[in-house]
Each structure stands twice: as C-alpha cells, then as structure tokens.
Recover the amino acids of this structure.
C-alpha cells in the first residue's frame, strides 16, 4: 500500500510550529520557511490531524486488494520448554478461540518438536480445532532454519488469516523470520487483540517503553503475525478435546540447520523475584533485620516473595538478588505491597509497571504514594501484624 | 573479515507523553541519541575486531541527522560508516526496515558477520535483526551473551536462554543480536573523535540499491499501518487509608476480593 504526506504550501503559514507537530522530528523546516517530510516519517498522521490542513494524506496507486477469503482461521504456534507446552500457548489458544469465534473460523495450532504427539491432545483441550504436528529428531531443539521451514509449510498448508506467536525468546526469533519470508506484517508484544469481520486483526501494543499505545493493522497482507508476551491473556478453561491431529513431514533438506549446538549448561532453577506474582518489598522503614521475618511471613501467606530496596541490600540484610530498581531487577507482579519504602525514583523505575501497588508508609508525603493504587498512611509495625492475623484467622475459619 | 553493525538513532528520552487535548506527543525537544542497546552491539563487534582482525562498518537507516550515531560509532572504533537515507525510506515498519537494511548491506559489501542490538527503545520490537537475516538468507541467533571463539569460517557464541546457556557454532556469513551485559560498552574516545572528524560517510539512497522498486521501501513497503496512537489507560482512582479507617481490615478485604488469598 502506498501513501505519502503532501504539504499544502498555502496553508503552511507557521512552518516552525507545524514542524514541531511531528513526534518523530520528520518534518524539516528549511531556513527559507519551506517544509519537507524526511525519512523519519512513520505515517502516524498526527500532522494531518493537527496541522490545520497544511498536511494531507495522499494514497497513491494503492496495491490491488488481496482476496482475504483465501486465508481462513486463527493459528497459534505452540512453544515447548523441555518437552512441555509453555503456558503462553494456552493463553494464545484462548485468545485465538475468541477471535476465530467472532469470524466463524477454525482455531488451528502448529506444534513442532520431537516425540510430541502425546502433547497434541492437550492443545485440543485448550480449544484448538486442529493441531498440525511436525515431529522429527531435528526439531528437538529450537533451531531457526528448520523451525522457520516448519512454520512456512504450516502456513502454506492451512493458510491462516492470523498467526499468533508467544513473545518469548524463541517466538521473537521465529515470528519475524517467518513474517519476512511471507513479506507480511508483524506486530510485536500486543496487549490487546480484536478482529473485524473481514479478518483484519486489530492490534494494540505499547511503544516508547509503555508511554504510548499504538493501534496497528495489517490491512492488505496475509497472514497477519502478532506476538504476545506471557501472562498478558488469561488461560482459558479446559474442555473435552474436540478436534483433529494432523501429522506433516518435512523433507530432509528442510530440517537442516547451519547452526550447531555444541553444549548446553543448565542455569540454576532458583526463580527470581521477576517471576513472582506477588511481592512484598521491604524498605528502610524496617528497623531491625529480624523484623524481616514478619514480611517474609506475609509473603508466604500470599504465595509471594520478599524483595527489597537498595538500602537494605547495602545494609547487608538482604541479598542483592532481592533488590528492585534501576540497579536491581525490574518487576511487574500482579500485586506488590511496599512496606516502609520511600519510593525514590531509582526504586520506582523497577516496579511502577506492577498491576496493583499497595504502599504502607507512615509519611503522608512519601513519593511512593504518587504511584500507589492503595496508599496506607500508617506504621508497618501496626498494619503488617494485624493483616497477618486477619489472614490467619480468615483461613482458620474456612 | 568484514563485520557490519546495525545501529539506530532514537529519541533522547522515552519519557514521551501524549497531550490529552491535542493528541500529540509531548517530547522534550528534539533530542536524539544512539539506541542504548546498539552500544553493546558496537562493543561486541569491536571486541571481535580486536581479537580476530576485521574491518568494522557501522550501518544505519534514518534521516540525514542520523549521521550523528555513525560519528559516535567512529569514536568507538568503527572503520567505515554507511547511512541509508532516502525520502522514500520514510514510514518503514519492521518488514521494510529489515528489507532496506538487507539491500543496503548488499550494496555496501560482503559481510561475514552482522551484529545487531537486542531491540530499540522507540520501535521496541526486537525483530529487525531476525527479519534482516531472513532477507539476507543467512542463519541468525538472538540473545548472544558471550563470544567464545572466532574461527576462520565460523563464530562460537553463547546464547542466553531462560533455563540454560547454549554454546552454538554459526558459520559465516551469519547475524547475531546481542544482549546487554555482554560487554561494558566503551566510552567514545576523544582521540578517535579528532582522528575521524573528517572521515567520509557512505550515503546510500534507493537508487544505489540492487532493488530499485520503490514499492519495497518505506511506507509503500510496509504491510502494517499505525491507525492511531493514544495514552495508556490512566490508573484507577487512588485509594488512601490512614489510622482511623482500619486499614489492615480494608487491605484484607481487598486482597480477598482480588483473589490473592485464594490458595488458602
Ligand atoms: C545510581 C543510583 C541507583 C540506585 N538504584 C537503586 C535501586 O536499584 N533500587 C533501590 O531500591 N534503590 C536504588 N537507589 C537508592 C534510592 O535512591 C533510595 O536511596 C532507596 O531506594 C531508598 O530505600 P528505602 O525506601 O528503603 O529507604 P528510605 O528512602 O530511607 O525510606 C524509608 C521510608 O520508610 C518510611 N518508614 C519509616 N518507618 C516506618 C514505619 N514504621 N512504618 C511505615 N513506614 C516507615 C519512611 O517514611 C520512609 O519513607 C539508587 C541510587 C542511586 C544514586
Ligand atoms: N533504522 C535502523 N537502522 C539500523 N539498524 C536498525 C534500525 N532499526 C533497527 N535496527 C537494528 O535492529 C535491532 C532491533 O531493532 P527493533 O526491532 O526496532 O527493536 C536494533 O538494535 C538495531 O541493531
């Protein structure tokens, strides 16, 4: 599709102000007052909307429209970790089922690996109408060429309108490779997906580190690729498997990779605070190291982990792996309860993406309250023990 | 050996906000900088150059002002610089960016190794590297966390996977994208700044590329369309509880309502 922004000279009366409209600095104002759009243009059309008529969108010799009816179904690329299905696959199947339902098309899942047939049933029970399997020893490990070849074969075989891939490390390597092969669009890290009746995918994703959201479409190409990170969509309820399993094979040449895996070293299995759904963050409001056990207990009751500010790491009370912040870990749990944390910017930068922030601090002016959803202006030595007691009696009453 | 490193100029700050009245982006001036992730790519390329002997070319696609990041690459030790700039490259999405870079690299020379950063701070997709490798028809690996060996015909590198570190051998030509923390990027050298001040930069426009079909570049070559940009949903109303509100009680109710106590 081709289009460009045209400058309507007569209306460009205040060139400098107009140039400033562009968030990408793509409108250049020359010394003689003429404007030019340079290669920084992203076609966001902010200038068209706010330029008082000085900019116009010109659609030139539009690409002939493709026949969208030739592409049917919403596909999910399954991901394996150590022989098990990564939960992001189930999350995507849930979303795929919802989208496919809206357009009355099937949900298809592609699964590649070695000795994987037993896993196909599991995918059916999360909503796939068909699982297309590629089972070969060469697919045991993720290697880019054979995996891209399998996905290519799958797309040519089923011609899905949409391909959803987990925004995991391998997904972010595979999806772009395949999207480039099909000369089609790929939208990374979508946080919202919807579909219109002509199977156009409506994709919303954060940009600029989450400071803005962009609504993106792929109006005239198929399939439409999108990656979605783990834990963005919920896992759908399981159902009775209701669908078929189709086996496909690839030619030997398709299974070759130029990349050789020489060795693999297991990492320590200790999960970090990044993985926890619930965090209790301890700050300097904690007076003695032994008082941390009270927060540890609360973390245990909430099935969460204890984390801390740098102050407590520096004091030697907490392990550096527990530190949240600019020089520590970035966390995004479902719930974080900060206890005696001032909320210095270096700390906040590492946790302000958390879903629910509860802050307990005795100082009503503590900066942490600016980012908290629930601000509790009180003493942690009063609130925390009381809360623990309530949780315990609540549990005992059940 | 010939190495290319792909770098990008990005806005100086990610702290952009959308003006709720006008719907425009508020940015502090027009400041720009090198994509921070690409500093690691340059450093990695420099380490390989120093260890194995190589010519290092820094490549960027962007407006004329993007020359600044190429100058910075010179100050870190790059030997050559290529600026892919053309009005018709404007509005490129991942596909068109990957394609344009692949054409530019073909025009600029035969590279054995291409090094990309993990992601950019503006596009923030971490996809350009893999698309570029596909367009060049060469293998790639992402998330490289260590360079182990540079052989005559291949590179041995460690890949940082969530559960393991895998040592891989990739034959040249190939593309790698590097994680931050692979090496500490060196600071631009003042000496090199002086020495390279007049160093020419190769400018490549669409007419210099092997494929001159303008439908493959910029907005025309981009299958995706930004329909709209808008501010993220504001956080809900903030709740404040203090002493007289029985906060522990209320917090307990809140945790129950949000199902955080479910497992008990
Ligand atoms: C370059 C740089 C990088 C940094 N990186 C990090 C980082 O990664 N992570 C990080 O955490 N810090 C980092 N810091 C340090 C950061 O600036 C703060 O100093 C630190 O986060 C403060 O920790 P705190 O909130 O525990 O302590 P304080 O700032 O001392 O705050 C303690 C808070 O507890 C409250 N309080 C006291 N008693 C009670 C009570 N009984 N009940 C309730 N509230 C109480 C007080 O009102 C106060 O607000 C960095 C600093 C620099 C310069
Ligand atoms: N315009 C560009 N010019 C040169 N390299 C780029 C450009 N855009 C992206 N890259 C490279 O691709 C990597 C990933 O970018 P992205 O997919 O935008 O997150 C970057 O770290 C760069 O190495």
């Amino acid at each position: 599709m081709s289009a460009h922004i045209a400058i309507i000279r007569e209306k460009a009366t205040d060139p400098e102000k107009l140039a400033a409209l562009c968030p990408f600095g793509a409108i250049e104002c020359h010394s003689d007052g003429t404007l030019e759009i340079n290669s920084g243009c992203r076609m966001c059309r902010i200038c068209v909307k706010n330029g008082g008529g000085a900019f116009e969108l010109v659609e030139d010799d539009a690409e002939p429209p493709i026949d969208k009816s030739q592409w049917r179904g919403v596909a999910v690329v399954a991901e394996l970790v150590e022989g098990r299905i990564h939960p992001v696959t189930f999350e995507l199947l849930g979303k795929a089922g919802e989208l496919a339902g809206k357009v009355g098309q099937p949900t298809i899942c592609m699964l590649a690996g070695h000795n994987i047939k037993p896993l196909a049933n599991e995918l059916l029970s999360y909503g796939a109408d068909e699982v297309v399997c590629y089972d070969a020893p060469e697919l045991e490990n993720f290697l880019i060429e054979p995996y891209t070849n399998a996905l290519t074969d799958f797309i040519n075989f089923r011609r899905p309108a949409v391909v959803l891939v987990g925004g995991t490390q391998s997904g972010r390597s595979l999806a772009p490779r395949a999207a480039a092969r099909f000369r089609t669009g790929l939208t990374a890290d979508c946080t919202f997906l919807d579909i219109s009746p002509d199977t156009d995918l409506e994709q919303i994703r954060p940009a600029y580190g989450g400071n803005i959201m962009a609504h993106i479409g792929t109006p005239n190409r198929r399939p439409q690729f999108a990656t979605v990170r783990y834990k963005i969509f919920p896992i759908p309820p399981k159902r009775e498997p209701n669908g078929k399993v189709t086996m496909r094979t690839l030619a030997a040449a398709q299974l070759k990779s130029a990349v050789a895996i020489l060795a693999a070293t297991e990492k320590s299995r200790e999960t970090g605070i990044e993985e926890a759904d619930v965090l209790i963050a301890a700050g300097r409001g904690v007076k003695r190291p032994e008082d941390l056990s009270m927060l540890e207990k609360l973390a245990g009751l909430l099935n969460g982990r204890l984390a801390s500010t740098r102050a407590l790491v520096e004091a030697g009370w907490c392990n550096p792996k527990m530190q949240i912040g600019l020089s520590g870990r970035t966390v995004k749990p479902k719930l974080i309860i900060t206890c005696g944390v001032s909320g210095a910017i270096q700390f906040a930068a590492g946790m302000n993406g958390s879903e629910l922030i509860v802050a307990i601090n005795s100082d009503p002016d503590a900066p942490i309250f600016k980012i908290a959803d629930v601000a509790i202006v009180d003493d942690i030595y009063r609130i925390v023990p009381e809360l623990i007691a309530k949780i315990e009696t609540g549990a005992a009453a059940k | 050996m010939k190495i290319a490193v792909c770098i990008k100029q990005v806005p100086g700050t990610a702290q952009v906000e959308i003006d709720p009245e006008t719907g425009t982006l508020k940015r502090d001036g027009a400041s720009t900088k090198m994509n921070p992730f690409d500093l690691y790519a340059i450093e990695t390329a420099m380490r390989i150059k120093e260890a194995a002997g190589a010519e290092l070319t820094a490549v960027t696609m962007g407006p004329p002002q993007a020359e600044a990041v190429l100058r910075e690459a010179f100050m870190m030790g790059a030997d050559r610089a290529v600026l892919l700039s053309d009005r018709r490259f404007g509005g490129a999405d991942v596909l068109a960016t990957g394609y344009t870079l692949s054409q530019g690299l073909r025009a600029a020379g035969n590279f054995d190794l291409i090094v990309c950063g993990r992601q950019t701070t503006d596009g923030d997709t971490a996809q350009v590297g893999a698309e570029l490798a596909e367009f060049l028809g060469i293998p790639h690996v992402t998330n490289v966390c260590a360079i182990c060996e540079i052989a005559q015909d291949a590179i041995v590198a460690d890949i940082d996977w969530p559960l393991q570190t895998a040592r891989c051998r990739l034959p040249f030509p190939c593309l790698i994208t590097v994680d931050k923390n692979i090496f500490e990027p060196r600071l631009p050298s003042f000496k090199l700044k002086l020495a390279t001040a007049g160093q020419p930069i190769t400018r490549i426009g669409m007419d210099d590329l092997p494929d001159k079909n303008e439908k493959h570049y910029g907005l025309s070559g981009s299958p995706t369309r930004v329909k709209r940009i808008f501010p993220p949903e504001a956080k809900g109303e903030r709740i404040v509880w203090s002493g007289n509100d029985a906060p522990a009680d209320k917090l307990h109710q809140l945790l129950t309502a949000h199902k955080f106590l479910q497992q008990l």
User: Anything to note?
Assistant: Chain A is about 25% helix and 25% strand. The two ends of chain A are 62 Å apart (CA to CA).
